Amino acid sequence: MTARPASVRIALIQERAANTQSEAIALLEKRVRTAAASGAQIICTQELFNTPYFCRTQDVRHFDLAEPVPGPTTDAVSRLAAELNVVLIVSLFEHRGPGVYHNTAAVIDADGRFLGKYRKMHIPQDPGFEEKFYFTPGDLGYPVWKTAYGCIGVLICWDQWFPEAARMLALAGAEILFCPTAIGWLADEKETEGATQHSAWEIVQRGHAVANGCYFAAVNRIGKEGNTEFWGQSFVADYHGRMLARASVDQSAVLTADCDLQALEQARRIWPFLRDRRIDSFDGLASRMIDDASAAPEES
Hints:
alpha/beta; Nitrilase/N-carbamoyl-D-aminoacid amidohydrolase; 6-stranded mixed sheet; 5 helices; 24% helix
């Protein structure tokens, strides 16, 4: 068995929507080869990498974009992963069965094996982000995978706002959290809310990295699609929340960063957040709200 590496180089592929799914896959292969040539060992796509962000409107024709997972796209990228000896995380529109669809990330190990998939748990519903129309909430929990280059977990876009999701992955042993994303500004909000929205997005994810003693890699898309301008700025933060790498607002990028797994272990020893959790005091987290006497602790 191959020894666990002391450090791993990761790459995030920030891209705009392609014209067709076949074009998107061809572009992905090009970007993956570039990343591998630069030494990247784990490579992640943006959310729904091989389709436009179709969730801007409710249209039943968009369901035709979905595919089985595993299926044609995972078969193609599995061959690429094995050829280049890299781990690939690809975000897809999954057709599970008649009328049931998921927003899904597939994980392929460096030998081309399909390790499994994560289905997006938190599904947003906002103007321009009509995701509840398309996606059934995930039912696979928060799996982690021991890949050839480290233990990883995956969240997808709206999941990135929920501290419980990142914590579940850290508790299961994840060292690097990847988050394929499609987030941007609506045209009528950018001037007044744009800077605040982007700042909140970045801060909350850097906070997950700190609170869980892990690396956090968020990979966004770019370009304008309808009324939405995706803000790019994919990034990698370390376990202290320090920014290791950040892409531009509007340019395609193969963003790389080195994740020192030995240093991460040392950081967790000095900042033992997982050790010091008072798990006996968290019963209320399983409630929607703590709003009645039955949910309050008894007085001694």
